[in-house]
Amino acid sequence: YRNKNQPILLQHFLLSSFLFEFILGLLLSLVSFFVSSYYAHNLIHQPELEPFLKIYSFFILFQCLYEYSLSVLLGYEEIKYYGYFTLSYTLIKSILPPLFVYSGYGVYGIVMGNLIPLVIISVLSLAVVYKQFYSHKKHIYSDISRLNAAFKQLLWYGVPLFFINITKTIKSQISSLVLSIYVGPVSLANYSI
In a structure prediction context, what are the per-residue pLDDT tens digits for the chain, which is 193 residues long? Predict the structure, then answer.
């Protein structure tokens, strides 16, 4: 729609995709949060991991928002911002977990060292996306019927791709889940790396 010079329709697609990512990410985070107790106690028999799994469940929401922001920046060919955010995320994620572990926070440090950079970069990248592509276009929010049509078209086109990505994600998670039942955390960590 960008090449067809239909900026308003493109704005509706961007807003629809944001709402979809946000709602889906929030739902999956909540499901993960509420299932983490059962998973820790009954499947891997390590109840001490429950608080870490609960914290990590919010990783899903912020990962969805981060990926949305990067996709928009890439789609608009804003490579400068794309590069800043991916580089910043990688650097912060490389520094914080070891720093927290060496400071004596242990597993909690690893979890927070992975989550904090994602939250920071997600919020910053969403702020840039909003400022660049939404803030000066107030009129798109009032046309609910066009927004609804864009959302339906987005779903119709994206559902097969969505299920392909979910299947790939579930496949890798099931592998880790099955391994976590039969091997210790050190072996699983080595496998995951």
Answer: 455 565 666 677 777 778 888 888 899 889 989 998 998 888 777 888 888 888 888 888 898 889 888 888 887 788 889 889 999 999 998 899 889 988 988 888 888 888 999 999 999 999 998 887 776 555 555 566 666 676 677 666 666 766 676 676 666 666 666 666 666 665 655 555 4
With contact defined as beta carbons under 8 Å apart, do 49 and 40 qualify?
A: yes
Considering all CA atoms of the chain, what is the largest pairwise distance in Å, rounded to the nearest integer? Answer: 56
Alpha carbons 35 and 74: distance in angstroms, whole number: 34
d(CA 45, CA 6): 54
Angle, helix 7-38 to helix 144-182, in steps of 10 degrees: 30
Question: Model pTM greater than 0.90?
Answer: no
**Nearest CA among 68, 70, 72, 63 for reference residue 11:** 72
Residue in 7, 14, 55, 2 with CA at minimum distance from that of residue 154: 14
